[in-house]
Amino acid sequence: MISAEHLSVTLNGRDVARDVSFWLTNGEMAALVGPNGAGKSSVLKALAGVVPCQGEVRISSAPADKLSVRERAKYLAWLPQTRPVAWNLRVEDVVALGRFAQAPAPFDRMGPADQAAVREALDKADATHLSGRPFEALSGGEQARVHLARLLASPAPVLLLDEPCAALDVAHQLDLMQALTTEAKAGRTLLIVLHDLELAARFCPRILVMQAGALVADGAPEAALSAQTLADVFGVRKNDSGRLERANR
């Protein structure tokens, strides 16, 4: 459903991603992990088309650079790491932005099917009770759930999520990962940037590991997050209890 072939990204004269290649199929849910500055967000931005890149990105077999912005939005929805909202919209109007490529209208002006999609997305994100409230009146965690609902409201078959668990409490992190698992089972393709390796290994059947702009491991959690990779890339190891700790301790 989405692929990168020899993807490279240069920002401000610095190579932040180099020769990254991978393929994700329908219904696949993968985590993109790595230390700070490894290039994870830059790869997602390149896939979403918001930063220039070298190499080739294909979405549903089509070269992404041949798609218009609206056409790409029909195939792909992106949840960035930083999520500013320019106006103090109502919650349901923020979520309705996820339908923009298909139904460019505020919630109250949408048709019944699009309104139903917004309500369903709010329910999936455990944010239905926030409807009607101004976005800026919400806590950071509540805003994160509304942004998740905006992503889920999109009909796009490919979802890119950059640190979706940030600002969420533990219970809502688990709820979010379970909701994303359900989306994958329904046939959507998901690539999720995560810092919590244990959460990634628990929910994502495939792990892609980046280090210094390069893709250094790709596979099932037990293979991609081997003891050698944990030590070399993250500087951690598993102790006798199976918990991660600094490797030099």
From TrEMBL:
SUPFAM superfamilies, alphabetized: P-loop containing nucleoside triphosphate hydrolases (SSF52540)
Keyword tRNA-binding attributed: no
A Pfam family matched in the record: ABC_tran
SMART domains per UniProt: AAA
Domain ABC transporter residues, every copy: 2-237
Domain of life: Bacteria
Keywords: ATP-binding, Nucleotide-binding, Translocase, Transport
GO MF, one annotated term: ATP hydrolysis activity
Stated role: Part of the ABC transporter complex HmuTUV involved in hemin import. Responsible for energy coupling to the transport system.
Protein name per the record: Iron compound ABC transporter ATP-binding protein
Biological classification of the source: Bacteria, Pseudomonadati, Pseudomonadota, Alphaproteobacteria, Hyphomonadales
